Amino acid sequence: MWLLFLFVLPFYVIVCVALGTVDPIFGSAQPQWDPLRWDSTAMRYVLNQTFLRGGIYQPAFIRTLVYVGSALAMCLLIGYPVAYFITRHGGRWKTWLLLGLIAPFWVSYLMRMLAWVNLLQDDGLVNTALLRLHVIGAPVHWLEGQSITVILGLVYGYIPYMILPLYGFLDRIDPSLLEAARDLGASPTRTFLQVTLPLSKQAILAGSVIVTLPMFGDYYTADLLSSSPRTTMAGNLVDHAINSPFVTRAAGLVLVMMIGLLIPMLYYLYATARATREAAG
Amino acid sequence: MSQVVTAAPTERTRPAQPRPGRIGGWLRNPWGRPRFLPMFALLYMVWSLAPVAIAVLFSFNSGRSRSAWQGFSIRWYWGDPSLSVWHDPALRSALAQSLKLASLTMLISVPLGVAFAIGLDRWRGRGSGTANFLMLFSFVTPELIMGVSLFLLFVKLFTLVRLGTTAQLLGLITFEIAYPVIIVRARLLSIGKEYEEAAMDLGASPTKALRMVLLPLLLPAIFASFALVFADSIDDFIIVRYLSAGAATETIPVKIYSTARGSPTPALNALASIMLFSTVIAVTLALIVYRSLTRGERKGEGMALRDFAAQI
Q1: Which of A32, B104, B196, B235 has its CA 20 to 30 A from that of B229?
Q2: Any residues with CB less than 8 A from the CB of A121 and at least 6 apart, and which?
């Protein structure tokens, strides 16, 4: 039980600091511990730059939404068929396929990005292959601020986190339900659309939350795969701010992010709690 | 320029390029003999694993290039007198720091997490729900938010703890403790209370029941947690980076981040590969132990692996 205090206390303090440091007295970050004397200048600055038209943070936030949205869509489009296949038709290869699904978890995210940096260099293997196939005439500068590179990097980085929950959930669907649907005369497509898909709705939602949460806090993918202002994401803003004198702005941005992500986070907790209850019977 | 951009999607996804056709065919006939799905899954596997395999391969390149193969050598690991992982002090310290942090985090957070899980499971008081919620909440918080708040915590409040190894360790433990808790709790749920109660009915004290009955039953979960925490903390980037104090406390992922876009040599690949190897070793060991410990509980080849996967 005493562990509780070891754990809750730091967490409580973290929240306190995140709130406190938003409100400086001087230009340098000066935490204000007394909630009654909080000063909202810095916070207002962050909010204005984020939400008002023409704010300097706004493009990055919109870009983040677009990137995360497209990456999420691709994760689903690629991940669902793969998870579905392994569940239904894995057969005796199932263990190996599963190992393949888990393997990326054991490779550092940064290393997987490094792998793509190697491949996508101007004289990298991707350009070499495409040149040889005559798809492109001249080497493409993949790593110089291409949105598509960053989005695909995000997909590559986070898709395992989508597939594994999907697999876990699809695997639990009772095959007799599907057989029943077929026996009752539903076409294969209809069985899929009316039985499998609705049953996996929860898993799709959970997977999406798992994937999007870290994507919103991501800055290293954009940094490694493009490092250009054209692909700045919300995470990059925080990273720049915390390495600058405007540490308060970093805290403010983090707060904005935190509030924006609160709903998916709570949803995820709720879903996990429900799953645990169901497992407990 | 615009032409390049519009052409990009189909090219860059080369391994997954046939996607639209595959999905079309699969939707039209999902129950027929699956011809498209295996291809698709296979392409996915290749796409997800090949880049890393190539990166590892080029760590053995004998030349400086990371894209043209010039023959096998372990120059970047050992041979090169100034640039190899072993001889470059920066790379070597990154390796040492990574291993140190991961091992310490593992050794501290797993026992804490196990105790925490047993506590949560046995204590049905008012605070247990809150404690559980907070723990899970910290688990789903994006790491960036966690990293920034920990950074501010150590810089502004706990100035006694200076940035560096101690701060990194504390941050990692806070973040990683959720893994053993979740895994051990799942196992506790499936074990139930019966064994412990039987032991106590037979005259064991609560401590003895815990030590002789519950802990052995929890062993697989504990081993799984050791492996997971080690693998995850050696890979951790955000928290470790924000809480590091200069070059001496940089870990491998931080090193990759700071040098990948500079002009790295294959030594960087070698460093990343070493990290990969150590993770793989840790996980394989844990899997073997896990398997031998749960033998007899479940039958079937690969069942343990699936079990293991389900716990992530």
Answers
A1: B196
A2: A127, A143, B66, B67
